Amino acid sequence: MAEPKRQPGEALPFERLAIIGIGLIGSSIALAARRFALARRVVLFDISDDVRAEAARLGLGDEIVASFAESVRGADGVVICVPVGACGAVAAEISPYLQDGAIVTDVGSVKSAVIKAVLEHLPPHARFVPAHPVAGTENSGPGAGFPSLFVNRWCILTPPNGMDGDAVARIRAFWEGMGANVELMSPDHHDLVLAVTSHLPHLIAYNIVGTADDLQSVTQSEVIKFSAGGFRDFTRIAASDPTMWRDVFLHNKEAVLEVLARFNEDLSALARAIRWGEGDKLFDLFSRTRAIRRGIVSQGQETPEPDFGRRKI
Amino acid sequence: MAEPKRQPGEALPFERLAIIGIGLIGSSIALAARRFALARRVVLFDISDDVRAEAARLGLGDEIVASFAESVRGADGVVICVPVGACGAVAAEISPYLQDGAIVTDVGSVKSAVIKAVLEHLPPHARFVPAHPVAGTENSGPGAGFPSLFVNRWCILTPPNGMDGDAVARIRAFWEGMGANVELMSPDHHDLVLAVTSHLPHLIAYNIVGTADDLQSVTQSEVIKFSAGGFRDFTRIAASDPTMWRDVFLHNKEAVLEVLARFNEDLSALARAIRWGEGDKLFDLFSRTRAIRRGIVSQGQETPEPDFGRRKI
Predict the structure, then answer these.
(1) Helices marked H in A140-241 — which ranges?
(2) How far apart are alpha carbons B154 and B125 in whole angstroms?
(3) Do the chains contact at A245 and B303, CB–CB below 8 Å?
(4) Is the same domain home to A220 and A263?
């Protein structure tokens, strides 16, 4: 996997970068910003004392501070890395201390609701460039981060019309500097695309794992034992951070419910085909879905190894 | 991963083993039977000329024959490795040529329907021990097999009451010889357990990939690009063999539809919680599902590495 390289002499995207929220994404950004030299100084803050202590133990960033004010004071770049439901409150906390012209960005999986919540609080001089790196693992917390998390992943920016070009360019350089590919789209379209490629899959995975866990006719130990038949794949995303995902569903309600309705229609048709023994319909769908994976593998978004490369042969 | 070892001097499970059907499972058994010395001679047959040619090119087994008759003549063990809808027809083809007391087994993901279909045709002297190794990858065909596929996976046997103990013991030794853990259960219970841990997950994965592919509001290229947000996990099992899976759903209809009904009830409740903003309900479910994955990892049925170990950090 190629790692991003910055040219010698190229200006750093940021002089002083504040990262607020030290979970999987915040800690990965802290590690990547240092590894790829994207800011002269990286300052971290988290409202949890335990998380700050853990981040200090892990040696994340150059400095771990104990308040919102200290984190953003003098920062030319601020990345909000908290669950989407908390972005508005963080914006309110940092607003009084933001330096003139500071570029603020986020990493939320929902854009329209976050933009509305954040813009309510930011001062007019601050420049908000919403961003969403489509990357992650099922682990969370400051110990889960790693610097290559964003390499060859997409990061979607959804700047409002008329947003300052320099601010967008610096956020683009920042994400490209961490190895990501950057794409711009409207917040509404982002929320619909991600409802399909991320939110619905998580909802379905959480649901199927819950259903399996609740069945009295099949014990939980049987579900665990025989999970290699397919079920275990779903448990990975159903092990994702509960707070983060609660907030995603609550803040992208319309798009998620719309896509879910389509999923349900298709599932009813599939159930009907099974009930009436319509093998051709099943075969046609099952053949078509194979092609999608080939596309994902050929575009470098998935490993070509069988079974995700789980076992070395 | 520990590999199975047979004791020196221990009797081979089979003298002459016939494998009928050379897909992922048949080819893996052929490779494992040689690697772990489970039969003196391994004979392979497939009705497809192309598959037999490919198997010969790959050097699978000791001999590749061109008819059902040649494959089972003189064999003390016969493994039927074809889609479950074809097991009855294979049993009919091999019946006249089975040697007295031959042990016949299968690898089908459905047991009740397969047992019924096979027993209709087998001669009374043959001993049928139905089996299902809960293992596989999304790849298919004779080139997809590898000898360690069954190591540390479960293989479920569903012998009828009163089945000859020696036949069951030899099939057990055969699967344990390939590294599998063996468990016995009734065919009906097997079909319900697997509906939960394997058939429903496949149905849901096929469905969600189909839904995403059909949406006009989100392009296929966007689905592929941003698949790392969760969707790509589903594409792996939705890339599984279409014929095999068509047959599974058609032959385990009742159990699949029953489990699907439970899934749908739960999903409706989840959608309702999203619509009404009941964050606590979402959080509770999402916390509970995390624990299931920990169980699967701790029982050695899943890698503890984040993201299935897709990326080395």
Answers:
(1) 165-177, 187-194, 200-214, 220-225, 231-237
(2) 29
(3) no
(4) yes
Q: Are residues B130 and B195 in the same domain?
A: no
Does one domain contain both A124 and A250? Answer: no
Percent residues over pLDDT 90 in chain B = 89
Least CB–CB distance from B213: residue in A214, A259, A288: A288
Tokens of residue A56, six digits:
């200090």
Closest Cβ–Cβ partner in A202, A215, A290 for B239 = A290
Whole-number pLDDT of residue B312: 45
Q: Sign (positive/negative) of CA torsion B200, B202, B205, B209?
A: negative
Averaged over B68-87, what is the pLDDT? Answer: 98
Residue B293 lies in a domain: no
Residue A306 placed within a domain: no
How many structural domains compose chain B?
A: 2
Looking at residues B3-32, what average pLDDT do you find?
88
B97 and B156 part of one domain? yes
For residues B124 and B208, state if they share a domain.
Answer: no
| CATH, residue A117 | 3.40.50.720
What pLDDT, on a 0 to 100 scale, did the predictor assign at position B217? Answer: 87
* Partners of residue A283 in chain B, C-beta under 8 Å: 242-243, 246
Q: Which residues of B touch A270 (CB under 8 A)?
A: 203, 206-207
Q: Quick check: A257 pLDDT over 50? A: yes
pLDDT tens digits, one per residue of A104-120:
999 999 999 999 999 99
Q: Give the model's pLDDT for residue B10.
A: 75
The strand ranges marked E within chain B are 14-20, 39-45, 63-64, 77-80, 103-106, 127-129, 131-133, 154-157, 181-184
| Residue A252 structural domain | 189-300
Return the percent helix, strand and coil in chain A, to nearest 5.
Answer: 55, 10, 35
Three-state DSSP at B35 gives helix
Task: Quote the pLDDT of residue A1.
Answer: 45
Size of interface A-B (CB pairs under 8 A): 352
Q: Between A3 and B155, whose confidence is greater?
A: B155
Mean pLDDT of A193-216: 95
Of B161, B185, B209, the residue at which a domain comes to its end is B185
Q: Is residue B37 part of a domain?
A: yes
Residue B205 sits in the same domain as residue B268: yes
Residues of chain A contacting residue B107, judged by C-beta atoms under 8 Å apart: none
Contacts of A109 in chain B (CB under 8 A): 229
Residue B294 is assigned to a structural domain of this protein:
no
Of B127, B156, B185, which residue sits at a domain end?
A: B185
ipTM above 0.85, yes or no: yes
If asked whether residues A126 and A274 sit together in one domain, one would say no
In this structure, are A197 and A153 located in the same domain? no
Average pLDDT over residues B97-110: 98
SS in 3 state form for A17-83?
A: EEEECCCHHHHHHHHHHHHCCCEEEEEEECCCHHHHHHHHHCCCCCEECCCHHHHHCCCCEEEECCC
- pLDDT per residue as tens digits for the range A30-75: 999 999 999 999 999 999 999 999 999 999 999 999 999 999 999 9
Say which CATH number the domain at A258 has.
1.10.3660.10
Interface test with A, best of B138, B243, B282 (most A CBs within 10 A): B282
Give the integer Cα–Cα distance in Å for A24 and A250: 21
Q: What is each CA distance from B158 to A26, B109, B135, B161, B169, in whole angstroms?
A: 51, 12, 17, 9, 13
Rounded to two decimals, what is the model's pTM? 0.94
